[in-house]
Specification:
Elements: H1 16-26, H2 34-47, E1 51-55, H3 58-68, E2 76-80, H4 86-93, E3 97-101, H5 112-117, E4 123-126, H6 138-148, E5 151-155, E6 163-164, E7 167-168, E8 175-179, E9 192-196, H7 199-209, H8 232-243, H9 245-263, E10 269-271, E11 278-279, E12 286-289, H10 296-305, E13 311-312, H11 330-338, E14 339-341, H12 350-361
Parallel strand pairs: 2-3, 2-4, 4-5, 5-8
Antiparallel strand pairs: 1-9, 6-7, 6-11, 8-9, 10-12, 12-14, 13-14
The chain binds pyridoxal-5'-phosphate.
């Protein structure tokens, strides 16, 4: 039997099955039921914020956050050029303009200098993305936001549990948005969450995600809303995942340390650098390969022959049709052209890590 190493896989070995069975037994399988509130409460505590409200995925978490802050036509929102496309798509859903900023060459994230370059009279918000679990330099970003009176929505899809100056990501900006897609650090299959300590924002999101229906008056709609709710079944899985978060974090850190031990000293490997004052939570361990004539595509082809699944990094947004701009993004281009994400999941064995690093060396 060939032993295939996947790039990611969920660990559902806790109470996920029991909780799901409880949903089926009780009949609460839609977007009402006891697990929703339990998961939201546990998640708010986990993020050290007052409120958390669940939704159907990470993309709509971003959409809801932007809508709740009143972002719309003629507004500009600064997003990193190197991110998953959903960050910019959510801005476009609102009729606003995503303005791309280049990222830092070492942390692969937005920094204050890059953000400040892109501010205009129309800028209303910044969406820092904590890429691959590495927090952005939030001091710089919050300072600029304050100076220009901008909202900060943290895209924490890849970074639940990461901290900056001891604060959980998602609790530093005005709203934090999370994804629970199958390959993320905590999964509910599909799912998302908005967190904030601003009650007004959370109340607004609750209305928007529930068809715009007025609280306390069923079937009355003051605004056009969406059906962006999470189901009790998703929340059941999420709660079981969250119960084991500290184990997940320990395992992910162990995997990162092992990768660094095996690869860190090689001159042709450039790992993503953790931001100063930050504690990252390794999502997909990612590195740049700095060798002439060796592209990520070649590495992936070799890996595939050895039954190892890896990934290229995200393509810089500016190169794709919906996001094109005349600006240049040297760092995002360089990182994306040289980087790969290596398998990172709970239950990886040391021998798997050795096999991957051996294949990379070859
Ligand atoms: C996964 C991801 C999203 C979108 O989350 P979905 O749950 O897949 O909609 C948004 N931003 C980033 C950075 C992501 O990695």
């Amino acid at each position: 039997m060939v032993n295939i190493i996947p790039v990611a896989k969920p660990d559902l070995s806790g109470k996920e099955g029991d909780y799901l069975a409880e949903c089926i037994r009780s009949g609460w399988i839609s977007s009402a039921g006891p697990f929703i509130q339990k998961f939201e409460q546990a998640f708010a505590e986990f993020c050290e914020v007052r409120y958390a409200t669940s939704c159907s995925n990470g993309t709509v978490a971003l959409h809801l956050a932007l809508l709740a802050l009143g972002i719309g036509k003629d507004d500009e929102v600064i997003v990193p050029d190197l991110t998953f496309a959903a960050t910019a798509n959510a801005v476009l859903f609102c009729g606003a303009q995503p303005v791309l900023a280049d990222v830092d060459k070492e942390t692969w994230n937005l920094n204050g200098t890059q953000v400040e370059k892109k501010i205009s009279k129309r800028t209303r918000a910044i969406i820092p993305v904590h890429l691959y679990g590495n927090p952005c330099p939030m001091d710089e970003i919050m300072m600029i936001a304050k100076k220009y009176k901008l909202w900060v929505i943290e895209d924490c899809a890849e970074s639940p549990g990461a901290t900056y100056r001891g604060k959980k990501v998602g609790s530093i900006g005005h709203i934090g948005c999370f994804s629970f897609y199958g390959n993320k650090i905590i999964t509910t299959g599909e799912g998302g969450m908005c967190v904030s300590s601003d009650k007004e924002v959370i109340d607004k999101i609750n209305i928007l995600k529930n068809h715009g229906m007025k609280p306390g008056q069923r079937y009355w709609h003051d605004i056009v809303g969406y059906n962006y709710r999470m189901t009790n079944m998703q929340a059941a899985v999420g709660l079981a995942q969250l119960e084991r978060f500290s184990r997940f974090l320990g395992e992910r850190n162990r995997i990162k340390e092992k990768y660094l031990q095996l690869l860190g000293k090689k001159s042709w490997i450039l790992p993503q650098k953790t931001t100063m004052h930050a504690q990252s939570v390794p999502w997909l361990f990612s590195v740049m390969i700095n060798l002439p004539q060796k592209t990520p595509a070649m590495v992936l082809a070799q890996f595939s022959k050895k039954n190892i699944e890896a990934r290229r990094l995200f393509y810089p947004l500016h190169g794709m049709p919906p996001y094109q701009t005349a600006d240049v993004f040297h760092n995002a281009d360089y990182i994306s052209d040289h980087g790969i994400s290596l398998p990172t999941y709970i239950g990886m064995k040391d021998e798997d890590l050795h096999r991957i690093c051996q294949a990379l060396e070859e």
